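Internal ticket #5521
Category: modeling
Description: The requester needs a full-assembly model to guide mutagenesis choices. All entity lines are attached below as received. Residue total reported by intake: 698.
Assigned to: D.W.
Attached entities:
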Amino acid sequence: MSEAAGTIEAEKSRDIRKRWLLSLPALLIILVAASGPLLIVLVYSFLTPGPYGDVQWLPSLEGWINVVLEKDIFDGTFSLADAHVSIFVRSVMLSLVTTVLTLLVGFPTAYFIATRPEKTRELWLLLITIPFWTNLLIRTFAILEVIRNEGLINGLLLKFGLIARPIQMLFTDGAILTGMVYVYLPLMVLPLYASMEKLDFRLVEAGYDLYATPFKVLRKIIIPLVKPGIIAGSILVFIPALGAYVTPSILGGGKNLMLGNLIELQFGQGRNWPLGSALSITLMLIVMVALLAYVRNAGSQGSRHG
Amino acid sequence: MEALWSPSAKPKRRGQQLHARLSVPHMAELNAVEIRNVSKVFGFGEFAFAAVDEASVSIRQNEFFTLLGPSGCGKTTLLRLIAGFEYPTSGEILLNGEDIAAMPPFKRPINTVFQSYALFPHMTVAENIGFGLTMLGKPKQDIKDRVAAMLKLVRMEALAGRRTSQISGGQQQRVALARALAPQPKVLLLDEPLSALDYKLRKDMQIELKRLQAETGITFIFVTHDQEEALTMSDRIAVMSSGKILQVGNPREIYDAPTDRFVADFIGETNFLKGRINSVSGGIADVETPVAGRISATVPQDFKADGEVTVVLRPEHALLCPPDQPPACQMTGTLENVVYFGTDTHYHVRLSDGETLFTLREQNKPLQGARFTQGDRVGIALEANAARVLRN
C-alpha cells in the first residue's frame, strides 16, 4: 500500500520535473530577453554615470532627479528641466495626434476593405502590408526625398510657379507626423479590419431601416460594434509612436526631439547612462498609465454597451 | 391598446395612414404599395441576372400580403426593393401613390423584420425597440411611453433591460417585431421571420402576427417559402418564380384555382394529366384524357385555347376504389406506395399508361387499417368538379 503510494509520489514528481523542463525555453526567453534587460536598466538608473559612458557602481539618485530637474553647474541648485518636460509633452502630444490621424485615415480604409467581395479583400490587405516589407529607414528616407526643400513636392510647385521659394516642410512637427502616420497606418488598419470583418452588415441595414442617416448609422451602430478594433489599433499605434526614434530623428532633424531621441542622446553623446535608463523607465510608466486609463475607460463603456 | 394607436384613430382604417398632402378625393382607393413593371438586374453583360423581372402587383391598405416562392425566386429582392436596400433597375414603386423608388431607406416610412432579426447586440431590448423613434427625434418621454406600450404589445415587459444575446430566439423575434412596429410604419415588411423558429413556436408566432396585424392596422408584406404558412396567414398571396409574379389571389383562389403549372405544383400536391379539349360550355370543358377517359374540368376565366391542355387534380379530391367498377372508377393502376401520415394516408398509384404516378390522400378513419396494400390493382374515382384546366 505505502509502496504503491510512494511510486505514485515518485511518478508525480517526475511528471512535474518533466513539465518544468518543457516550459524551460519559454522561461529562458522571458528571463533572459525580457525581464533580465529590464532589470539591468532599472539597476543602472540608480548608479553614477562613468566618465566615458557606462556606469560606476556607486548608488545614486542623480539619474532619476535629472529626469525632471536640472542641477545648475555653478551654484548646485535644482530647477525644472524645461527641455525634458517639453520633450515629454511633445512626445505624448505627437503620439496622440498620430493615433487620431491614423484612426481617421485607417477607419475608412478598413471599412472599404471589409466591404469588398471576399475574394478581393486579401489583395487589398496585401497592398496595405506591402510597406512593411521595406526597411523602416528606407521608407523614412523616401518621405524625406518627397518633402525636403529640393524634393518632389517643392520641385513640382516651383516648376509650375505656384510658389516662389520652397516651403519648409522637412524638420517640422508636420514632417514627423506625416512620417509616423505613414509608418504606423497598417498597425491601425489591420485590427480595425479584423473587427469590421466580423461586423454583421445586416445591422447596418437595420439601422437605415429604422430612420438612421448614414452618419447616425456610423455613430450609433458601426463605431460601437468595432470598438475593440479601435482600441487595439490605438494601442498598437500609440505605444511605438511614443518611443519612436528613427522617424523623428530623420524627419524632425536635430531640434525636434522626441523621447526616443532624448534617450538615445543619453547613451551616446550625453554619456549619462543612468539618466537614459531612468528616462526609459519613465517612458514605460507613461505607456502603462495611458494603457490602464484607456482600458479602464473602454471597459466601463464595454459593460454598458456589449 | 386603443390609446397606443390613438394618433391615427382606429375606425378610419382605410386610408388612415396617407400623407396629408396626398388628400386626393378618391384616396380610399389608393393602394398601400404599388409595384409597376419593376425589374432588378444584378451583374452586367452576359452575367446579367434579373432577380426581379417586370413584376407588377398592388398591395391594398391594411392587407396581410404574402410573397410566396421557392428560394431564389426573387421574393426577398422584391422586399428589399420596397424597403429601399436595393434600387430597381427599372419600374416604379409607389407608397400611397407616391413614387419612392429612388428614396433612401431611412426616409421611407417602412420598417422591416429581418430574417436574422438583426437586433443591435450593443443595446438592451428597450433600446432596440426605441431606436427608430430616437432616430426620428421624438421627445424622450414619448419614446419611453411607446417602448413600454410595444413591450406590452409583444408581452416582453419583464425583459426590457436584457441584452439581446440573453434572450431566446422566440423572444428575439418578438423584440424584432416590436422594434419594427414602434415607429408606426405605413407598411411592415417581414422577411421569412419565422423560419428560424421550431414548429410549435412558429405556430404560436403565426397567430401572434395575425393578432398584431389586426391590432395595429398596418399593411404587412410577408415573405415566405412555406406554402402552408402563406395559406393560413395571408389575405392575399403572390406566387413568384424566377423573378416573375405568376398569380395573385386569396389563399382559396391560389389553392383551388391555380392558373399556372408552377403555382399548382408549388402549392400543395397536385396531379397533372394531359388531355385534349372536346368542347367548352358554361366554364366547363369536356376533356379527353388517355389515362382517365373523359373528364369534366373547370376552365379559367376568359380561357380561349383548345386542343392540348393540362388538367390538374388535388390528391384529396380522389378516392381509391376496387378496380373495374366503371363508371365511378375512372382510372385503374397499381398501388406502388402507401405512406401513413397520421391524419391521413397517401397512396401513389402507377396508372395504366405505365408512366403517370397519381397521388391520392385519404383521411384516416378510427380503427380502420389500410384498405389496400402495396401491389394491389386499384381504381381511382374523382370527385365532382375536382378537375381544372391550366392556362398553360
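Resolution: model delivered.
Comment from assignee: The interface with chain B takes residues 200, 202-203, 205-214, 216, 220-221, 224-225, 305-306 of chain A (CB under 8 Å).
Ticket closed.
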